[in-house]
Amino acid sequence: MSRLLRLWRMFYTMLYISAFTFGGGFVIVSLMKKKYVDQYGWLSEEEMLDMTALAQSTPGAIAVNAAILTGYRMAGFVGIAVSVIATILPPLIVLTVISFFYGAFRDSPAVQAVLRGMQAGVAAVICDVVLDLSRKVVKTRSVLSILLMGIAFVLVFFFKINVILLILSAALLGIAIGFLRKKMKQL
Predict the structure, then answer these.
(1) What distance lies between CA 137 and its chain's CA centroid?
(2) Residue 116: half-sphere exposure toward Cβ, Cα within 13 Å
(3) Domains of the chain: which residue ranges?
(4) Closest Cα partner for 20 from 64, 86, 67, 69?
């Protein structure tokens, strides 16, 4: 496939995903996985999982972070520009239009009902992503990964621990484990 065709397909795919998803970055990441991994085969599941973790742990919107990472992986800096523009264009247009009509929408029972319905759909998509990613962690059969996943869930869900603290702790643990493995190989 030519570079120009791949860039066009990236732009169209990200524009399509961004235009027809509601609920934030996790929803977009799950659809990116379906397109980039399952449909086009541009990325492996492991690459997409790693990019999702990076996108989630860096500052900013997850959707834009994921677009940056996948765009760079697939086409370098031009890929970043194409993916990010395609990702931010639909929300920018929608928010611009909504801002003109905000007063009329604000008190409409129909609009409020639609938004409540969309919340249910978003919850279902997020549950799908969580189950899919959890299955992948369990398939690794890494006791440490499975244990960390369970502990992270308990700490966030029951004890309301800030996710940033968990991400930083996991990063430090990963560095420590890598350091220990390196030392063990030297022995």
Answers:
(1) 16
(2) 6
(3) 3-139, 141-187
(4) 86
One-letter amino acid at 51 equals M
Rounded Cα gap, residues 94 and 139, in angstroms: 40
Q: In the 8-state DSSP scheme, what is residue 33?
A: I
Residues in the chain: 187
Query: What interhelical angle do 62-100 and 25-32 show, nearest 10?
Result: 120
**110 Cβ partners below 8 Å, 6+ apart?**
none
Nearest CA among 26, 71, 77, 74 for reference residue 53: 26
Asked whether the whole model's pTM tops 0.85, one would answer no
CA atoms lying within 13 Å on the CB side of residue 86: 25
Collapsing DSSP to helix, strand or coil, 165 comes out as helix
**Segment 97-134, tens digit of pLDDT:** 888 887 777 778 888 888 788 888 888 888 887 888 88
